[in-house]
Amino acid sequence: MTAWIKRLFVAAVLIFLAAPVVVVAGVSLNEPKRLLFPPQGLSLNWYVELFQQKDWLNALSNSVIVAVFASLLAVSIALPLALYIWGRTGLFARALFGLGVAPFMLPPVITALGFLVFWITIGLYGQMLATVVSHGVFLVTLPLVTISLGLQLVDRQLIEAAETMGADRRMVFRTVILPMIRPYMVSGFAFAFVLSLNEYIIAYMVAGFTVETLPIKIFNSLRYGYTPVMASVAILFVLIAMTVFGLIARFGDLPRLLGAWSPDRE
Amino acid sequence: MTTPSHRLSARPLAIYPAAMLLVFFLIPFGIMVVVSFFHRVEGAFFEPAFEFANYARFLSPFFGKILATSIGLSAAAAVIGVVVAFPFTYFLTTMPRRQQTVILVFLLSVLSLSEVIIGFAWSTLLSRTAGVSNLLVWIGILDGPQAYTPSLTALLLGLCYLGFPYAVLVIYPALSRLDPELPEAARMSGASPVAAFFNVIIPVMRNTIVGTLILVFVFTLGAYLLPQVLGRPQHWTLSVHITDQAIFQSNLPFSAAMAVFLLLVSLALVGITMLLSQPKGQRS
Lengths: 266, 284
Fold this sequence. Notes:
The complex is a heterodimer of chains A (266) and B (284).
Chain A: H1 2-28, H2 45-52, H3 54-85, H4 91-105, H5 108-122, H6 128-138, H7 141-152, H8 156-164, H9 169-198, H10 201-207, H11 214-223, H12 228-251, H13 254-257
Chain B: H1 15-35, E1 39-40, E2 46-47, H2 53-56, H3 61-93, H4 97-112, H5 115-125, H6 132-139, H7 152-176, H8 181-188, H9 193-204, H10 206-221, H11 226-230, H12 238-248, H13 252-276
Antiparallel strand pairs in B: 1-2
Helix pairs in contact in B: 3-7, 3-10, 4-7, 5-7, 7-10, 8-9, 10-13, 12-13
């Protein structure tokens, strides 16, 4: 009886979460250039359009370039930061960790406005570099958290063993630590990549009029009338997110990454 | 945490990340605070000054209304979100690990969705041509299809949609680490599962629940696109006005002052949650 209610409740919530996605998926398959659900006729025209129309393609490539470089930047900052904090409990280390987590905890409008005045001040407002660096710093939190989790799993005895055998710091890092934390670096990169693709407000405030990313393009198009291409972009984004998180879950322990204890430890 | 004599991480490691965060995070915030005291110049950005004029505008009814709207909407979304998310997460943690993973992948995908996409999806779902009203017509409840957006209800639905996966992921670690013997013990001593849930699990999780409420509140406070897509202009929140003032009214100093205000409120609230989540027999 209670198990039945439990299932019903979980199912109802999942339907609520899926409903907008299902409707948008249906709309994206419309044959006429209108948002109808259930769709009239079935076609993949609007997905083709996304890759053929110059302005959509341009927004797509902007988004991908920004996401790739911003996530690389985020990992490059997070990796030494996580290594430095690892095993340190001093005030400076804790402050640094707080600083790495802060951009993500605050409402993004604030961070966006901070970036806006900063780039205006140094004269790079409207450049793609500004978008990349802003996203990179904003998203440091994700690889920082995943890499720190990975470092918690490194067995210190293994390091001691390597050291007694004469390995120096660099060699220990390359042969012991790096292989263990590499999956956590990859998932940190992947989290940052997906979020950068979807991020709107910072990209808009920092260079919205010159570097049009997909979310900005969708919002601009919302004002001038809806087209099914927007639906196809939305579905593409859902699919990318599901693929990325699905892969992380397939090759890693997603519940543990999200804070559950892993059953095979303790 | 132990600090072994042979720390693996050399001190210079901190230089690059610390410098990056200083230059690209702390300094921008510093400039923003400074600009909030500047004088607005029509047609240009601003000129250096030290005046409280931008903060004085907080006392106007204009700002009071924005603040009341923002707080009311976010509070409602946070309460609804957590009330649904808590039992949902509890059920989730009792499922087999495989099912948990599938649902978590789905939740993460929804959480990572751009607000633009969520806004677009909900406005489609609530629209006349493609929306739920067509389904209601088909069942026979309605005579003709209707549009439910823009409206306050649409906006609130959107905000709950935004906040819900976040709430689940904040509650998830605490609930999945909950000692499974706790509800069992309650049931052994004769409590029904429902009673065990309300009398044992909820009290134990009180701090987590309050913390989640605050975090979801801050999270939805940052919602910027949903009020524009799903709501009417009178539903615009502080976040919308910060951008509107900065980009369209070219009033960066006032915008910065509002952002500083939002920053202080958020920092205070996040600070409270951090105090609440101080480990108390729980592993940090």
